[in-house]
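Help!! Second protein's tokens look totally different from the first
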Amino acid sequence: MPTLSRQQLVTLGLLTLVWGLNWPVMKTGVQHFPPLSFRALSMLIGLPLLALGLVALKVPFRLERRYWGPLLVLGFFNMVMWHTLIIVAIPLLPSGRAAILGYTMPIFSAALGALFFSDRLPPRAWMGVAAAAGGVLLLLWNEMDKLGGKPTGVALMLLAAASWALGTQLLRRTRIPAATLTLAFWMTVMTTACLCLLATVLERPRWHAPDPVAWGTILFNAVLVIGFAQVAWFFLVRTLPPLASTLSVMLIPVLGVFSGAWWLGEILHWQDWTAVALMVLAIASVLWPSRARG
């Protein structure tokens, strides 16, 4: 089990805060602006920030042509599927429950790793997966009737989580000799192009000037989510073992649930509080240092 460096811990803490708060932010944003256009505009603004980051840090943009194919695969599963599916699903679900469904990703990731990538998980790691799964089930308990009436939103979120899990496994194992920032930039370019095309084809009749609330949520996503959090996540994926990087972010849906309750008035139940303990257990199972062998 890994011991996180100070840089990894700070990155993880900031990532948790930004992504956790972003669920009610996105829910608010798509109530004021068409969802695909909301995401596309966020990325169009965030992409130059990523480019400035590469320039400031003197990270090369260039990627050899022979790696374009693997990059397209990484971008499709890590970003295109995730960003497209969640932004379409969010209007159909409460923000907190959308976050919970999205963060079934560690469960998918552990299963995919064991089945297809020869990951050997110790009992402590499986305990973390079981705790995360228990937390998800508890948080969904009081929403079963509502979710049962909205199968499209549920299916989209679960498909997004499965795609993200596969993308995480592939990114962890990629042999593309490029910096994380370089990969993040070109995957964002790819995703921005796809979302702009989808927004133009599907939402053009609904386009209008964003109001102040829409602009606030769009800028939050552009600067903090696209400009920082996405790159921070890729950094963790490439510097931590797969299960550690995935289970380490399980506090995000908990923050999403409680921020949604505070911001949007979504009602909390005893299952929410119990799930907090299970999520913390899941995180501790992979991040608590192992006892040294004598």
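Here's the second one for comparison:
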Amino acid sequence: MSLGQKLHPHLPFLRRYARALTGSQTHGDAYVRATLEAIVAAPEEFPADVDPRLGLYRTFHAIWSSSHLEDEPMGGGDDREAIAQARLARLTPLPRQALLLTALEGFTVDDVAYLIAMEPSDVEALVEEALAEIEAQTRAKVLIIEDEPIIAMDIETIVRDLGHDVTAIAVTREDAVREAMAERPGLVLADIQLADDSSGIDAVKDILSEISVPVIFITAFPERLLTGERPEPTFLITKPFQRSTVKAAISQALFFDQATAPA
């Protein structure tokens, strides 16, 4: 199997991570593109003694820490990028990397230590630092769109444990839109397959046509959203999920939100 074939299954998830790290699909994809260009230019330098996914993310981090692509003008920018830069001034990159890599991407602490060249104990400290700093900066009202009662209750508990309020739990597209218009949320957590066979994707589209709000999709069918053929969600969690993954995604989504932007 060629190196390209080994890396291909991991690229959608590296793109997800890059978007979450930078707060921009444009910038995130630019870093992923630069990573692949570096691998193609010097395949002999790709780490051969580790799992291909680890090697891919290690190469990405080398590019991300040295190329400063976010300083270059790019098309498709929006207010989220300005918000991200304002927050980045308050939160150093390493804690955010450690948080995303462990909670969102599912790497072990030892893996992350390898990826960012630190000791495991330092990685654990970075994760705690990131959670504390981000949670201190962000508070929001959250709409949950989920038709499975047990899952909905679990998500609600996670949201409330982080100090946020839950405006409603909607189980259909119609319910979701009505609740969003009744009390405009600062964050939406949405499944894509709802109780009456309606679509959470359509519900989110309806909501976003009326208000601007960050969205986290939580779904057992990530392939429906990670197509590369249209703007993809910055935050996408696969079921079954870890509670730490949901917490990390919520913190990161609000990290880039206008409503909680630093003054």
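Reply: Different proteins will give different token patterns, so don't panic. The longest strand covers residues 165-170.
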